[in-house]
Design goal:
It contains three helices and four strands; from the N terminus they run βααβββα. By secondary structure, the protein is α+β, with helices and mostly antiparallel strands. A four-stranded antiparallel sheet has the order 1-2-3-4.
């Protein structure tokens, strides 16, 4: 059964396992990670999708600054490989 949940209720280990599955263990070298470095995700804009209590997808939003402009960086949008192309990313 698919269920939406705030990401704050998800363990860091489960989230990291999902991100590793979706993007690979070298994901920390990507530009988006450098932009988010030292920041905390915006809780009320970050969500999870659970399937029978197991994390299968997530979306995070982060505060970033570009010059003097405050922006929100959307992502990562992660979907477990076995659920990719099922529409969960679009739902997030």
């Amino acid at each position: 059964m698919i269920q939406f949940s705030p990401l704050t209720g998800i363990s860091a280990d489960a989230l990291n396992a999902l991100l590793d599955d979706a993007f690979g263990t070298d994901r920390h070298m990507r530009t988006a990670y450098l932009l988010r470095k030292g920041m905390t995700a915006i809780d009320h804009l970050s969500f999870a999708i659970l399937d029978s209590g197991v994390l299968v997808a997530s979306i995070q939003c982060w505060p970033v600054r570009l010059d003097k402009a405050a922006l929100i960086l959307v992502g990562p949008v992660a979907v477990a490989t076995r659920f990719q192309n099922s529409g969960l990313g679009k739902q997030l």
